[in-house]
């Protein structure tokens, strides 16, 4: 019995020594440790999820106000600007009101962000490989246009994978204390929409969302990466390599990326929200032809939603909530990029977005 214990102990020690030796060789670039690729993928997904959760929670009150501004009844204005809107929510619903829908939002954004960052890295590799093969230059690097394409691919994949959660999150977010609650949470909302409106309702507004995500996510990645590359190559701050970019500099790059992306894509975000509210009895209403009766607004599609929004409320309605959204997006995108890279550093993932 003692002999068996000794043998078992020797076997365990040998296994540990072998694993340590393999890890050492992997760090030195001699061999790849077992499951090294799988571990890197998991760590990358975790980093993306953490980045999404942290960045969205930091700006949750502004996210809720943005959606309320987008879908509020034009004949009964409650939210008129960023400061007034936040004060109104605080006064009528308290602290919890400022973060209403954030749990559902994080349940959506964590997997969305994880898939988005990981998809961008994989799309970048694939696009770069094809570009190098086409040009015959193995040293070729991604151009801003190619990064835009990789970001667009990542955005479409992430948006499509998590869209039903985004749809019900929008409805949960616009519920107020003054109105009867239809949805008690994300899963209750999903089941209610499925039962009362059918599975297609979970993808209401999907088309403008996909169209909007192409410039939004694409520009976010393209501007962020291109700015970092420019700062390094121009030696603007005496930088030697990417690792020496400070947190403040990277936050500034992320803020610029978020500003450009959301300004271009914002009208499509407004239309997406409005299409998501169709079929819900708490959605905004408009006056009928006689000018006296209010009825819920219906849309036959994206173009019809654009037309009716401009017709009933003017062109400015396409940018309702832009100010709180701008205040939200700038720090949110910046925090997401920097958090992603910092978490990957902590987890020991060598790949960077710009690799």
From TrEMBL:
Instruction: Indicate the principal place this protein occupies in or around the cell.
Output: mitochondrion
Q: Quick check: keyword tRNA processing in the entry?
A: no
Membrane topology recorded in Swiss-Prot or TrEMBL: Multi-pass membrane protein
Top-level taxonomic group: Eukaryota
- Which keywords are on file for this protein? Membrane, Mitochondrion, Mitochondrion inner membrane, Repeat, Transmembrane, Transmembrane helix, Transport
User: Which GO biological process entries does UniProt record here?
Assistant: transmembrane transport
Query: Where does the record place it?
Result: Mitochondrion inner membrane
Q: What Pfam families does the record tag this protein with?
A: Mito_carr
List the SUPFAM superfamilies. Answer: Mitochondrial carrier
UniProt xrefs under InterPro entries: MCP, MCP_dom_sf, MCP_transmembrane
Ranges of the Solcar repeats in the UniProt entry: 39-126, 142-230, 245-346
List, alphabetically, the GO terms of the cellular component aspect: mitochondrial inner membrane
Q: Which family does it belong to?
A: Belongs to the mitochondrial carrier (TC 2.A.29) family.
The protein here is known as: Mitochondrial adenine nucleotide transporter ADNT1
Query: Which organism is this protein's natural source?
Result: Vigna radiata var. radiata (Mung bean)
Quote the gene name from the UniProt entry: LOC106773171
């Amino acid at each position: 019995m003692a002999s068996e214990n000794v043998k078992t102990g020797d076997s365990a020690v040998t296994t540990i020594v072998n694993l340590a030796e393999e890890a050492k060789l992997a760090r030195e670039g001699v061999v790849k440790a077992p499951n090294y690729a799988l571990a890197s993928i998991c760590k990358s997904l975790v980093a993306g999820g953490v980045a999404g959760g942290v960045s969205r929670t930091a700006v949750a009150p502004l996210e809720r106000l943005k959606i309320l501004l987008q879908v509020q009844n034009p004949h009964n204005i409650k939210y008129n600007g960023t400061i007034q809107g936040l004060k109104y929510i605080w006064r009528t619903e308290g602290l919890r009101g400022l973060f209403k829908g954030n749990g559902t939002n994080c349940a959506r954004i964590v997997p969305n962000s994880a898939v988005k960052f990981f998809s961008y890295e994989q799309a970048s590799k694939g696009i770069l490989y094809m570009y190098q093969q086409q040009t015959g230059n193995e040293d070729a690097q991604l151009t801003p246009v190619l990064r835009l394409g990789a970001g667009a691919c990542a955005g479409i994949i992430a948006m499509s994978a998590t869209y039903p959660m985004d749809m019900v999150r929008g409805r949960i977010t616009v519920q107020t204390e003054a109105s009867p609650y239809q949805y008690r949470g994300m899963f209750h909302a999903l089941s209610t929409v499925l039962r009362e409106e059918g599975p297609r309702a979970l993808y209401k507004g999907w088309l403008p969302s996909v169209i909007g995500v192409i410039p939004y996510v694409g520009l976010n990645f393209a501007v962020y990466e291109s700015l970092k590359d420019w700062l390094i190559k121009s030696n603007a701050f005496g930088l030697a390599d990417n690792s020496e970019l400070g947190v403040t500099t990277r936050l500034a790059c992320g803020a610029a990326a978020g500003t450009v992306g959301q300004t271009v894509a914002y009208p499509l975000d407004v239309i997406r929200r409005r299409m998501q509210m169709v079929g819900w009895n708490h959605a905004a209403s408009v006056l009928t032809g006689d000018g006296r009766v209010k009825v819920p607004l219906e849309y036959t599609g994206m173009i019809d939603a654009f037309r009716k929004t401009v017709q009933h409320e003017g062109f400015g309605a396409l940018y309702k909530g832009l100010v709180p959204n701008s205040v939200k997006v700038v720090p949110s995108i910046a925090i997401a990029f920097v958090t992603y890279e910092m978490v990957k550093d902590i987890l020991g993932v060598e790949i960077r977005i710009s690799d």
